Amino acid sequence: MAHDRQTASGSGIVNLIAGVAATGGLLFGYDTGIISAALLQITSDFGLGTAGQQVVTSAIVAGALGGCLVAAPLSDRLGRRYMIMFAALVFIVGTLVASFSPGVVILVCARFILGLAVGMCSQIVPVYIAEIAPREKRGQMVVLFQLAVVFGILVSFIAGYLCRHHSWRLMFGLGVVPAVILFVGMSVLPRSPRWLAMKGNMEGAFEVLRRLRSNPQAARAELDSIIAMHDEQAPWSALLQPWVRPAVVASVGIALFCQITGINAVLYYAPTIFAGVGFGESSALLTSIAIGVAMVISTAFGSWAVDAWGRRRLLLRLVPGAAVSLMVLAIMFGIGSTSGINTWITAAAVVSYAIFNVGSLSVAIWLVGAEVYPLSCRSKGMSLVAATHWTADLLISLTTLSLVQALGAAGTFWMYAALNLAAFVFVWRYVPETRGRSLEEIETALKAGTFNKLT
C-alpha cells in the first residue's frame, strides 16, 4: 500500500508539472490560430490585399523561427524552467501590443514578438517534459504539449466565432490569461533533472527525481543511467556527427512533413478559402470550430496511441487517411462544392484530413524531436526540429493564398495529397520505434549504430 501511494504521488506530481508546462502549448495554439478569424476583420480595417494578409499571418511564424534558435543556447545555460517563464513574459508583452496596435506595422511587430515566445515554447517545453517524464509515460506526457496546442487552436476558433461581432483586438487580448498562468505555474515547478546533471549538480538532480519517481531506489537507478551517459554540452557541430545523423534525419524529416503536408494551410486560411468559394462568414468560422474539435479528439487519441501502438505504427496507419481525405477535398473543389450534398462532403473531407494528419504527424513531431537526441545536444537538436517546422510553416503561410490563386483550391489540395504520400514513404524508411525505451537507451542505440533497427 505504501508503494502504491508513493507511485500515485510521483505520478501526480509529474502530471501536474507536465500540465502546467503544456500551457505553453495552449498559448502556441491560441496565438497561431486566432489569426484565422481575426484576419477577416483586420483585412477590412486596414485594407489589406493578399500580400498584406500573408505578411500579418506569417509574422508570428518568422518570430517563431528566431525564437526557437535563440532558446537552445539559453535553455542550456539558464535551464528549461527559467526559459519557459521568460517565454511567458514575452507572450504577455506581445499580446498587449497586438491588442492595442494602431496600425498594420505595429500589428506585424506584435505578431513577431508573439512568434518569439511561440518558438521558444516549441523548443523548450517538449524537452522539459521529456526530461522529467518516466519512460513508460513519456509519449503521452510530451504529446500533452501538442494536445494543449490543438486545444488552444480550438479555443481560438471558438473565441473568433463568439467575438465576430466585436473587435479583433479582444480576440488577441484574451491570450493574456494563459500567459499569466504559465508564468506563475512555472515559478514553483522543479528544474529538469537531466539539465541539473548536465551542469554537474547530481545532488539536485537526485532530489528532483526522488520527488518525481515512485521511490528513492527508482530515482537512484535513473540518475545512475544518466550519469553513465553524461556528456558535456556539445556545440552545434555535434549534430553533424555521423552517429547523430539518423536522429537528425528522422526528427527533421517529421518536422518538415508535418508542415508541407498542408495542415497549417487549412488552419490559417480555412475561413478565407471557404468564404471565397461561397460559404458565408459565419459558416466559414463554424467550419473552423469543427476542424478544431477534430484536432483535439485526434490528438487525444494520438496521446494514447503513441504508447499503446508506438510512434512509427501510428504514423504509418494514419498518414494514408490524410492523403485520401485531401484527394476527396480536391475533387470537391474541382467540381464545385458550395451547394447540396457537396458542401457536406467538402466539410467532412476537411475534418477527416484534420483527424488523420493532426493525429499522426502533428502528434509525433515534438515527441520524436524531444527523445531521439543525446543529452549533450538535445536542446540544439530540438531547436533544429523547431526551426525546420517554423521555416516550412513560414513558407506555407506566405504562399498558400498565392497557391490557391495560381493552382486553384483543387490543384493546391492535390499537391498536399501527394506530399502526404511522400511522408508515408519517409516514415517507413527512416523513422524507428522508440516506444518504451529510456532516453539513455535511445542514445546508446545511436552510438552503437542500431538506431534505425529499433522496431
Automatic annotation (TrEMBL):
GO terms for cellular component: plasma membrane. Pfam families: Sugar_tr (PF00083). GO terms for molecular function: transmembrane transporter activity. The chain crosses the membrane at residues 12-30, 50-72, 84-106, 112-130, 142-162, 168-189, 247-270, 282-302, 314-335, 341-369, 381-407, 413-431. InterPro entries: MFS_dom, MFS_sugar_transport-like, MFS_trans_sf, Myo-inositol_Transporter, Sugar/inositol_transpt, Sugar_transporter_CS. The keyword Transmembrane applies. It is a multi-pass membrane protein. SUPFAM superfamilies: MFS general substrate transporter (SSF103473). Residues 17-435 form the Major facilitator superfamily (MFS) profile domain. Keywords: Cell membrane, Membrane, Sugar transport, Transmembrane, Transmembrane helix, Transport. It is found in: Cell membrane. It comes from the Bacteria. Belongs to the major facilitator superfamily. Sugar transporter (TC 2.A.1.1) family. PANTHER family: PROTON MYO-INOSITOL COTRANSPORTER. This is Major facilitator superfamily sugar transporter. It comes from Komagataeibacter intermedius AF2.
